[in-house]
Amino acid sequence: MEEKNNKPRVIFAKKTAKDLLKSIGIKNPPILIKDVVDHIRKERDLSVYPWAFGDNTDGIQITQGDCATIAYNQSQHSHRQRFTVAHEIGHLLLGHTSENSVFDLDSKKPEEAEANQFAAELLMPEDMFKKDFKNGIKNAQDLSRVYNVSEEAVWWRLMECRLIMKMG
Ligand SMILES: [Zn+2]
Fold first, then answer.
1. Of 2, 59, 117, 163, which has fewest CB within 10 angstroms of its CB?
2. 154 C-alpha to ligand 1 centroid (Å)
3. 105 CA distance to ligand 1 centroid (A)?
């Protein structure tokens, strides 16, 4: 097999998430996974299941022909589950659907960075996030509540959107 060492397509991943939110018509947080899945289902076959994975697997996405299946770890926190499903939807919409590839078992692949970018933009859209931050929701706990994501995800997003600077 050919070894690929491509850079992640960050802009493409973000744009795919932005376009999706726009076509669903979501303008305010929290972004509900159900709304996103229902919208995708209008155009393609997609099933999303909770699954009893072990501790080391967050989720998987398998696409065969027109049928896509996403399973997420049912024993993790709901914040984690939301991020996992968003990440797997990223794999699906970014075209990581080759039947011979299991992306999530090799986190160094550029596809994983792309799916993470997609998930972050989907659940914490940059424009909404910046607006809320500017309007005074500056604490990670409050942002976590408003966006229904983990505080850890909020900290990453704040740094990524340059709303706070890394110390040191
Ligand atoms: Zn992945």
1. 2
2. 19
3. 8
| Structural domains in the chain plus CATH codes | 10-160 (1.10.10.2910)
Tokens found for residue 152: 């850890």
Model confidence pLDDT, tens digit, residues 52-82: 998 888 999 999 888 999 999 999 999 999 9
Give yes or no for a contact between 129 and 147, defined as CB atoms under 8 angstroms apart: yes
Residue 123 · residue 150 · CB < 8 Å = no
- Distance from the alpha carbon of residue 157 to the mean position of ligand 1, in angstroms: 18
Distance from residue 71's CA to the centre of ligand 1 (Å): 12
Average pLDDT score over the chain: 90
The mean-pLDDT minimum among 69-73, 108-112, 121-125, 163-167 falls in 163-167
